[in-house]
Amino acid sequence: MNSRQAAMLASGVARRGAALKLAVPAGILFFVFLIGLGIVGGVAGSSQASAASCGGAGLPDAQYENDDESDDGGSKDSTDGLHAQQIDNAKTIDRVAAQGGLPGRATLIALMTALQESTLINLDHGPGDSVGLFQQKPQYGWGTKEQIMKPAYAAKMFFFGADSGSPRGLTDVKGWESMALEEAAEAVQHSEQGELYAGQESEARRIAKEAGINLSHPGRADSRPSDSPSATATPSDVPSGAPTERCEDEEDQQDGPAPKPGTAFHDGNSNWPDEVKNPRSTADAVKWARREADSGSTEWYRRCLAFVAISYGWSFSGTNYAIDHYWEMPSTMRHNRDRHPPLGALMYWSTDSRAGHVAIYVGNGEIASNDIRSPGRISIVPATDIESKWGATYQGWAPPYFPKGG
User: Fold this and answer.
1) Which of the ends of the chain has fewer CB neighbours closer than 10 A, N or C?
2) Residues 311/285, Cβ–Cβ less than 8 Å
């Protein structure tokens, strides 16, 4: 290298260094700017009504990649070992449940819990002294670290708890057979963030299917306390979309025979109950939704519940999943299967996955819905498109009631 080349190299390094010094603060300012716009950390107003509250274009709810190649074109061989561990651990959990006479529902709850706590990998570390599949703590009586690191032992403790009754296992929780899956998990784990377990249901079911685990098998009568409801009285593999106890309310859910999917929707006429009070009127909410469709904004990807809440003037809905918002409505507000929604009504669909879908009825058989034509965009489409294009199941309509909204 001659002196001229050396000088040019040094000059280039200096220029790059100066550019880097300018780029760092500029990048920080840009990041702050994005936060101000709500692009980073979620668009302002999404809060609890986040991406998890709806579904992706064409396939509601989170999807898990099964491609043979990673996003950068490389092989996924590096993850094969971890995935094999997940399958093995899932089989161990199911085997312990079956040996204890528990139904497949118990296995599903345990898989959801372990996925959230450890990604279903037998970790030898965690917050504080937490270890293992369920991140159990020796200091709270779950066993020694060596014991907890044995998947079969950890699963047995999760299901049955300590002989002394403290800590409690799943079968020590009265009514666990009929409570929502995530609530049952939280009753054992005491994580103070129980809603996070619900987000693992789709993946738990996928892994169970891959591992050959039957989540619908009943339990044995001798596996439950004598004062508990029958373990076989509750379906152990309830459809995703609504918590178990809501699905079992047959008088409420089965309002006549289900119309054939694709049956047209027509305008109905119904006044909202007195307790339905929103920052925006129904007419203004529908106008806002239509304007959002005309705007071409692409910020609504998987944010159906956020969209309907914000349309009515709220910053957030206060509920994690669209379908839960429907089943948490008072029964007098739910119009199950009814295809005559009034203008501004919220219409709900369930899917094979967890989240479900909600849209605003804008009249003439049409809805304002995200993702149906283009990811992230709001479109005005026939309400029947959710059935015909997504294969979803129409549950019914309800007034725009947001008791947890803010």
Assistant:
1) N
2) yes
Q: What is the DSSP letter of 242?
A: S
> Strand 393-398's sheet: what is its strand order?
335-336, 393-398, 346-350, 357-363, 366-370, 378-382
Residue recorded with tokens 């372990």: 114
For the record, the structure tokens of 220 come out as: 């044995």
Mean pLDDT for all residues in the chain: 76
240: pLDDT confidence band, cut at 50, 70 and 90?
very low
Look at residues 308, 271, 304 and name the one whose alpha carbon lies nearest to residue 375: 304
Which residues have C-beta within 8 Å of that of residue 15, sequence separation ≥ 6?
Answer: none
Instruction: Give φ, ψ of 338 to 5 degrees.
Output: -70, 130
Given pLDDT bands bounded at 50, 70 and 90, which one contains residue 377? very high
Give me the amino acid identity at 359: A
> How do beta strands 393-398 and 366-370 pair?
unpaired
160-200 pLDDT, tens per residue? Answer: 999 888 999 999 999 999 899 999 999 999 987 778 899 99
Rounded-to-10 torsion of CA 63, 66, 71, 75: 160
- H helix and E strand count, the chain: 14, 6
Contact, 250 vs 258, CB < 8 A? no
Residue 242 has pLDDT above 70, yes or no: no
Residue 351: predicted pLDDT: 62
CA distances from 304 to 147, 222, 231, 315, 359 (A): 45, 44, 35, 13, 7
> Could you count the other beta carbons within 10 Å of the beta carbon of residue 340?
14
CB atoms within 10 A of CB 13: 10
* Integer angstrom CA distances of residue 26 from 17, 29, 40, 323: 14, 5, 16, 42
DSSP 3-state assignment of 66?
A: coil
Residue showing tokens 């809905």 = 317
* pLDDT surpassing 60 at residue 27: no
The string of pLDDT tens digits covering residues 83-141 is 899 999 999 999 999 989 999 999 999 999 999 999 999 999 988 899 999 999 999 99
CA distances from 179 to 21, 168, 239, 323, 397 (A): 56, 16, 14, 16, 24
